[in-house]
Amino acid sequence: MFDTRPPINVAIEPSSQPFSFEQAGKLTGFDVELMNAIADKIGVKINYRPTPLENMFEAVNKNYVEVAIGSLSVTEERKKLVSFTEPYLEDGGLSVVAPKGKTVTDPRDLAGLTVGVRSGSTGELLATGVSGAKVTSFASNVDMTREFSLGTLDTIVHDRLILKNLIDRGLLPSGVVITPLKKEEYAIAYDKNNKALGDDMNRALDEMKKNGELRALRDKWFGPGN
Questions:
Q1: Do residues 190 and 85 touch, judged by C-beta distance below 8 A?
Q2: What's the Cα-to-Cα distance from 63 to each of 16, 57, 190, 221, rounded to whole Å?
Q3: CATH of range 7-88+187-222; options 3.40.1360.10, 3.40.50.300, 3.40.50.1980, 3.40.190.10
């Protein structure tokens, strides 16, 4: 049967397991299943557009896509380019992988350290704002964790749930300590000129929160209590 639902183009970064990644040639992950569920509820079909994180907000702002998803933190700077739905994760945020022989509990503790971050992330923004920190940006989590394992990086600043997943997959040593640095809210970005689409997505998210779908999806991908 033909799918006659109207299409929307959605920017996604397909190398951020467990939020969005490719498996056996197919996109999957928490954000992918969330976006698919929202699409079903509001009656649209999705055309995913793989997009580097650093280009996502510009892609929405310039109307290359209508929507972007991918553990996107809501910031005042980003709100100048796009609109955001209500948060679907309100306790996400940046954490740091503890470097050898040093405790990092505050961004200022990054001074003097070589810090790995994802290009275009709020982790990059935070680390580059620390005087004395030596920041290296990566387009890939795998490349970043490899450099950490080789000793090229002292530490990594990234999303807590992604760091935990990297440890679970053996891409970071199992003994490393993850310390929270900054709490953030994650939401779906959409075109400022498409308020109707934003309202529809908010209604779908509200339904998923009330009926437990969102909690179940979170538990599936991150584990209960995370």
A1: yes
A2: 23, 10, 10, 31
A3: 3.40.190.10
> 118-136, pLDDT tens digit by residue?
999 999 999 999 999 999 9
Which tens digits make up the pLDDT trace of 68-96?
999 999 999 999 999 999 999 998 889 99
The CATH number of domain 92-183 is 3.50.50.60: no
**What is this structure's pTM?**
0.92
DSSP state of 99: P
Structure tokens at 124: 């990059």
| Contact between residue 64 and residue 6 where contact means Cβ atoms under 8 Å apart | no
Domain ranges of the chain: 7-88+187-222, 92-183
> Which ranges of the chain does DSSP label H, i.e. alpha helix?
30-42, 56-61, 76-79, 122-128, 141-150, 160-168, 195-210, 213-222
